[in-house]
């Protein structure tokens, strides 16, 4: 086991470098980089153009070669790509993620600032998905083919077919002060008077604001986990050892809890570490935009659109590293859940 973990950790380094190298190479060919966007901002009409002309950077509607060189130095594009990539990897090794071109904050500070919003949405979605889907999937497997199985399957499928953004829009119209009921706020993580509320009031206000976005996010995840749970339990229920236990007179509840449940939960529990860690960094652009939640999804989208390369590469490095470690934890959990599984090669 320890040898396997050591080999996986060694493999993590070239995998991480490969992902960073491919992404870095792609963004070199994407038009409209930060220098081009700054030139466009300086040359466009309005206040920014007047300010640039007064500062001497804009002459006769054009940027001089000296000023272009200064902009390249400012954004770090005066160095060859390989040198810039090597500098970036060296900084990332020390967890120095760089500074945003447009936010004028370090990438670490930006992620720290946006993380609570995405964590709130991701963790609530994660826990509710597991707490609803596993009992529901077990009940559907035990009552396979019954009216409950059919009706619940149709309800789950209906939630899966409706995109989360559309469902969120419907919830806002119905319950967010649209055309019908104003039961929930239209957006934001907390209310304007959050600081003046008591602890109980703060918890109530927070849950009140998270109700609609979490509902919209959970609805789309129910079908996959529910069907997976049902299929895994059905497969175990139909195995020979279950028929043998029934023939020996064991109670059905004992068969389900002590035998079927333990074996069927292996593929579900082993995916728990990756899903749990991923919930910390879940950023849904559409949900965050619809409910005015300034989280990691919106930050990533703005970084790509503005060509904010430090934010793009810094967040990619953090998310990829956490994802690879989560996959390792998932593999380790196999041997923890089922002692019959080991990585010793024997």
From TrEMBL:
Single GO biological process annotation from the record: transmembrane transport
Known InterPro entries for this protein?
MetI-like, MetI-like_sf
* This protein's UniProt keywords: Cell membrane, Membrane, Transmembrane, Transmembrane helix, Transport
Task: State the annotated membrane topology for this chain.
Answer: Multi-pass membrane protein
Give the residue spans that cross the bilayer: 121-142, 154-184, 206-229, 268-291, 311-330
Q: Does the keyword Membrane apply?
A: yes
Cellular component (GO) terms are: plasma membrane
PROSITE patterns named in the record: ABC_TM1
Residues annotated as domain ABC transmembrane type-1 = 115-330
- What protein family does this chain belong to? Belongs to the binding-protein-dependent transport system permease family.
Q: What is this protein called?
A: Microcin ABC transporter permease
Species name? Neisseria chenwenguii
């Amino acid at each position: 086991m320890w040898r396997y973990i050591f080999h996986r950790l060694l493999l993590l380094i070239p995998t991480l470098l490969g992902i960073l190298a491919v992404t870095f190479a792609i963004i070199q060919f994407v038009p409209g980089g930060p220098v081009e966007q700054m030139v466009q901002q300086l040359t466009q009409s309005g206040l920014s153009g007047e300010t640039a002309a007064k500062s001497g950077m804009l002459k006769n509607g054009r940027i001089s070669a000296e000023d272009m060189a200064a902009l390249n130095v400012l954004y770090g594009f005066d160095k060859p790509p390989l040198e810039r990539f090597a500098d970036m990897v060296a900084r990332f090794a020390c967890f120095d993620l760089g500074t945003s071109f447009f936010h004028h904050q370090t990438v670490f500070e930006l992620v720290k600032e946006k993380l609570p919003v995405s964590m709130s949405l991701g963790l609530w979605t994660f826990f509710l998905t597991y707490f609803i889907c596993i009992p529901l999937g077990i009940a559907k497997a035990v009552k396979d083919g019954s009216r409950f199985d059919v009706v619940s399957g149709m309800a789950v499928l209906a939630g899966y077919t409706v995109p989360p953004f559309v469902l969120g829009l419907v919830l806002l119209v119905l319950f967010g002060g649209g055309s019908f009921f104003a039961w929930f706020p239209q957006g934001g993580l907390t209310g304007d008077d959050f600081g003046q509320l008591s602890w109980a009031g703060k918890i109530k206000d927070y849950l009140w604001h998270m109700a609609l976005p979490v509902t919209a996010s959970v609805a789309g995840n129910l079908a996959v986990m529910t069907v997976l749970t049902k299929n895994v339990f059905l497969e175990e229920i139909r195995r020979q050892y279950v028929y043998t236990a029934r023939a020996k007179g064991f109670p059905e509840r004992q068969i389900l809890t002590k035998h079927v449940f333990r074996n069927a939960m292996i593929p579900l529990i082993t995916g728990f570490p990756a899903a749990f860690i991923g919930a910390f960094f879940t950023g849904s652009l559409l949900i965050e935009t619809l409910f005015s939640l300034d989280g990691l999804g919106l930050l990533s989208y703005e970084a790509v659109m503005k060509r904010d390369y430090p934010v793009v590469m810094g967040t990619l490095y953090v998310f990829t590293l956490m994802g690879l470690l989560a996959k390792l934890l998932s593999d380790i959990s196999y041997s923890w859940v089922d002692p019959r599984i080991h990585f010793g090669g024997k």
